[in-house]
Amino acid sequence: MTPKRPGWQVGAALLFIAAGFVLIGVAWNGAASIDFAQGQLPYLLSGGAAGLGLIGVGMALILFEGARRSRVHLDRRLDTIAGLLEEAMRARGDGANGNGSHSQKGFVVAGKSSFHLPTCRLVIGKEDQVLMTSEEALERGLTPCRLCSPVGLVDEPIH
Questions:
Q1: If you write DSSP's letter for every residue of 102-144 in order, what string do you get?
Q2: Which distant-in-sequence residues (6+ apart) come within 8 Å of 109 by Cβ?
Q3: Residue 158: φ, ψ to 5°
Q4: Are 147 and 121 in contact (CB under 8 A)?
Q5: Which residues pair with 10 in a beta bridge?
Q6: Of 93, 115, 127, 132, which sits most exposed with the smallest number of CB within 10 A?
Q7: What would the pLDDT profile of 65-85 be if each residue is shown by its tens digit?
Q8: What is the residue extent of each domain of the chain?
Q9: CA distance 93 to 75
Q10: Coil, helix or strand for 26?
Q11: What's this model's pTM, rounded to 2 decimal places?
Q12: What kind and span of H or E run contains 11?
């Protein structure tokens, strides 16, 4: 969802900041026209507080617009990276979903102490799945899952 006129917040922010400084200037001018301190105080407090408030709103708008632009830029970069990863996975023949497609035959999902078939109910839907061959899993000292028995994928005897 992109705004129809991107960057309008910066223009509005600059108007708020300018209005704040103008209001502070008017308050100072009003206070300068009175020669006793008790008469100057209301001008300075009301005009100064309102001016600082407008300046604060303007600065907040600028900060939010900067954060929005950064987020949009980051989203574009992440979309590019995700597209490149999908292309690389398709080129490798792994599929784009990474959670147990049929083209991942021969691969297992490594856990902390064991490894599973990609279709095992213990690993389906979990984030950060690490795919490797069964030989790599055995080399790392992982044991086969008792539920899904990825033993058929293992060419070496299990110790």
A1: GGGTTEEEE-SSEEE-TT-TTTTT-SS-EEEEHHHHHHTT-EE
A2: 100, 115, 116, 117, 118, 120, 123, 129, 130, 131
A3: -90, 130
A4: yes
A5: none
A6: 127
A7: 989 889 999 999 998 998 888
A8: 8-92, 102-153
A9: 26
A10: helix
A11: 0.47
A12: helix 8-32
Give the whole-angstrom CA distance, residue 138 versus residue 110: 10
Q: What is the pLDDT of residues 26-35, one digit of tens each?
A: 998 888 888 8
Which amino acid belongs to residue 155? D
Residue among 130, 125, 157 nearest 144 (CA): 157
Q: What are 102's two structure tokens?
A: 């049929």
Contact 10, 58 (CB under 8 A): no
Residues constituting the chain: 159
Q: Which amino acid is at 74?
A: L
- Which is nearest to 65 in space by CA: 6, 1, 21? 6
